[in-house]
Amino acid sequence: MRPQRGQILATERTTRAWSIPLGSIRQTPEGTIILGSSEEEVGFDTGQNPEVMQRIARRAVLSFPWIADLQIVRAWAALR
Q1: Of the candidates 1, 11, 70, 71, which lies 20 to 30 Å from 56 by C-alpha distance?
Q2: What is the Cβ-side half-sphere exposure of residue 68, based on CA atoms within 13 angstroms?
């Protein structure tokens, strides 16, 4: 077993919704969009990497361009 860091971004709430279950983009019942699909081999480092967060956001906007109009309100990294 080894640690692997993942990073998550959360947008502000939106009334726009979809019912398509996706692995890296999800919407909470409250309307927040959760973005994340990183896998980083960095040992026990729980720090955030802005370049990885930028890639996560870019992929989401390429899939759903309207996400670009939402503000990111939270971001975090954790080990799994």
Answers
A1: 1
A2: 8
**pLDDT tens digit string along 18-62?**
777 687 899 999 999 999 878 889 889 889 999 999 999 999 999
Work out the average pLDDT over 64-69.
94
Nearest to 52 by CA among 2, 14, 7: 7
Are the beta carbons of 8 and 49 closer than 8 angstroms?
no
CA distance 45 to 17: 34
pTM: 0.85
CB atoms within 10 A of CB 27: 19
C-alpha torsion sign, points 56, 58, 62, 68: positive
Alpha-carbon distance of 39 to 57, in angstroms, equals 15
